[in-house]
Amino acid sequence: MSIWWSLQLRREAASVPLARRLLIGTMETAGVDPDVSYDLSVALSEACANAVEHGGAASGTPSEAYRVTAYLDGEKCRIEVADSGPGFPAGRSRPVIRPARTDAEHGRGLCLIEELADHVHIGNKPGRSGAVVSFDKILKWREGAPLMAV
Q1: Nearest C-alpha neighbor of 57 from the set 20, 5, 11
Q2: Residues 134 and 67: beta-carbon distance below 8 Å
Q3: How far apart are CA 4 and CA 30, in angstroms?
C-alpha cells in the first residue's frame, strides 16, 4: 500500500510546522519507525523554511505559495518542496552546498537535508522559475505496522 499527498501552502512561517505535523502524523499512522520519521520531518522543515524565506517570485511580485508533496510506499518516503522564486543561480546544475558553522543561525538547511536523507536532488524547475528540493529515505517500520512493505 502507498500514501501520497500534496499541499499548497502560503509562504508564511506558520506553514512550516503544519507541513511537518502532517508528515509526522502520516508516518506515525502508517507505522514508520520514529527515528526515520524525525529525520524526514526535520529535513522537510528545513526545505519548507527555505521556500518561505527564499521562494518569492523572481519578477519582484511576491509569490504567495509553495508546494509540498510526499509519497510513502513500502520501501521509501520521497518528499518534494517546490517554490516559485528565482531559483538557484543559473549555469549550475546544482547549488554548491558548504557546511555551515555549528553555531550559525542561517545557511545550514541544505546541509541538514543531505545528512538526514538517503538521496537528495536540489535544482530549478525545468523551464520555469523556482527551486525544487526533493529527497528520499528508505523506511524502517515498527513491528506490526499497518502499511509495512510486504
Answers
A1: 11
A2: no
A3: 12
pLDDT in tens, 27-42: 999 999 999 999 999 9
Could you tell me the strand order of the sheet in which 131-138 lies? 3-10, 65-72, 76-82, 131-138, 119-124
Asked whether the beta carbons of 110 and 133 are under 8 A apart, the reply is yes
| C-alpha cell at position 79 | 518528499
Grid cell 506515525 in the structure block, residue: 28
Q: Stretch 8-35: mean pLDDT, rounded?
A: 95
What's the predicted TM-score (pTM) here? 0.85
User: For the chain, how big is the Rg over CA atoms in Å?
Assistant: 16
What are the cell numbers at 33?
Answer: 519507525
Residue 119 CA to residue 122 CA, distance in Å, equals 10
List pLDDT tens digits, range 55-69.
876 555 556 899 999
Place of cell 541544505: 110
Q: Grid coordinates in use for 139?
A: 523506511
- DSSP assignment, residue 148? -
The CA-CA-CA angle for residues 21, 16, 81, to 5°, reads: 100
